[in-house]
Amino acid sequence: MPTITLTNLTKCYDGNTEPSVDQVSLTVEDGEFMCLLGPSGCGKTTILRMIAGIEHSTSGEIAVDDLVVDSVHQSCFIPPEKRRIGLVFQNYALWPHMTVERNVDFGLRLQKVPAQERKERCVDVMSKLRILEYADRYPSQLSGGQQQRVALARMLAVNPGVLLLDEPLSNLDATLRLEMRAELRRLHQTFGTTIIFVSHDQWEAMTLANTIAVMNKGQLQQIGTPDEIYAEPSNRFVAEFIGNPKINLIKLKESNDELMNLASHILARLPESKFADVCAIRPEEIILTDTANANTLPMNIENIMPTGGSWVIELSLDEDRLFHSTQSRPKWREGEQINAYLPTHSLHFFDHDEKRLVLSETHLDYSHLLLSSALPNPKKANPKNTNQPFVKQA
Ligand SMILES: Nc1ncnc2c1ncn2[C@@H]1O[C@H](COP(=O)(O)OP(=O)(O)OP(=O)(O)O)[C@@H](O)[C@H]1O
Fold first, then answer.
1. What does the domain layout of the chain look like in residue ranges?
2. Which terminus of the chain has fewer Cβ atoms in its 10 Å neighbourhood, N or C?
3. CA 16 to ligand 1 center in whole angstroms
4. CATH class of 248-381
5. How far apart, in whole angstroms, are the C-alpha atoms of residue 131 and residue 338?
6. Which residues in 31-91 belong to E strands, given as ranges?
7. CA 20 centroid distance within chain
8. Residue 25: its pLDDT value, please?
9. Which residues contact 290 (CB under 8 A, 6 or more apart)?
10. Rounded distance from Cα 148 to ligand 1 centre (Å)
């Protein structure tokens, strides 16, 4: 299966002031299942259309293996039918007057594949996608999920090197979506096809893809495995976009004395001076306890929301609101005061440019000191010392 390489790929539509795709560079390896993830209008579909060849790039390059298929600079544009790339859209566009088998057979006929081979390939792909029993039905006689599988079968029958899927599950109800996700995973394992999948649903991306490329406003924000994207977001946008409930962001300001102290001490260990504006922690990383100690912050329980087998608890820390999620039934009531432990290794710090400060285990090894009032506040200890405050004052 081919490798797809995008180099500084850019698309500016006539009349738009901002590029829809802005200098995107990434590689989709052979057999990879990559999801382009981002909010509506961030340029995901435009990238897919350029890879498929139904949209020309404005600048940059697309290569399939070593072959450049689109480059204005090199005056090169290889048409869609010569790229061996299949595209499945949100609406599957099945031919309504053709049976399932004729729909699946359609691309093979265009390729003038001999009749016997066509029959064998259609039967093979229909049975793998579990639609063989519907071979003689028309699309209107199928459920949404079955139609979806026919659309995928039609693409897979022509054996594309790369399969591009543009939110193909968006028209399905929740149960069917789940079934189809499992189907897509199975399909990827069975066929080993390189898949590029577009979604704005972070849960879908996390459950399906080997690699996620997060986009915002036409620009690639981060590329990595689902675990990397979740645990080591490169900036605030990625941190906030991934995760439900959302990551908690706490603005570092003087009223959060303990957090300010902690951040100062952690960041002071970095080789260069770094400033943090915001501290963040995922909801499931907060630990609630009855007993207060030097490592906890007092918080109020504002709301306890059951979500079916798990709970989301809204907490207040002065004027900040935080969310904690847990699989254990909470033993507290709304309105009670509890103590929250924020483990140092779970904390993220973002600078003024919203980039995440990369800290190693050594920098974060403050577990014995966390939030302790014994920590000297650099500002209070020496108000004249301008080198000390590693946390920018709000
Ligand atoms: N033919 C076009 N002419 C002008 N602008 C366009 C055209 N197609 C897309 N755009 C603009 O380009 C930007 C990116 O659109 P695109 O469809 O790639 O986003 P997307 O991330 O796929 O969004 P969605 O998730 O809503 O489908 C949008 O601002 C859109 O308005």
1. 4-241, 248-381
2. C
3. 11
4. mainly beta
5. 55
6. 33-37, 59-64, 67-71, 76-77, 85-88
7. 19
8. 98
9. 338, 339
10. 23
CATH number for 4-241 (one of 3.10.129.10, 3.40.50.2300, 1.10.3660.10, 3.40.50.300): it is 3.40.50.300
CB of 41 sitting under 6 A from ligand 1: yes
- For ligand 1, atom 11, name the residue with the nearest CA: 20
Strand 337-341 to 320-326 pairing: unpaired
| 227-235 long-range contacts, CB within 8 A, separation 24+ | 230/206, 232/356, 232/358, 233/348, 233/356, 234/355, 234/356, 235/350, 235/354, 235/355, 235/356
The whole-chain average pLDDT of the chain stands at: 84
Which pTM was predicted?
0.83
The one-letter amino acid code at 49 reads R
How remote is the C-alpha of 83 from its chain's centroid?
A: 27
pLDDT at 144: 79
Q: How far apart are alpha carbons 241 and 247 in whole angstroms?
A: 9
Q: Does 344 sit in the ligand 1 pocket, CB within 6 Å?
A: no
Q: Are both 4-241 and 248-381 of the same fold?
A: no
Residues 58 and 45: their CA atoms lie apart, in Å, by 15
For residue 197 the two structure tokens come to 């999948």
Tokens at 38, concatenated: 């981002």
Q: List, for residues 105-120, the tens digit of each pLDDT value.
A: 988 888 889 999 999 9
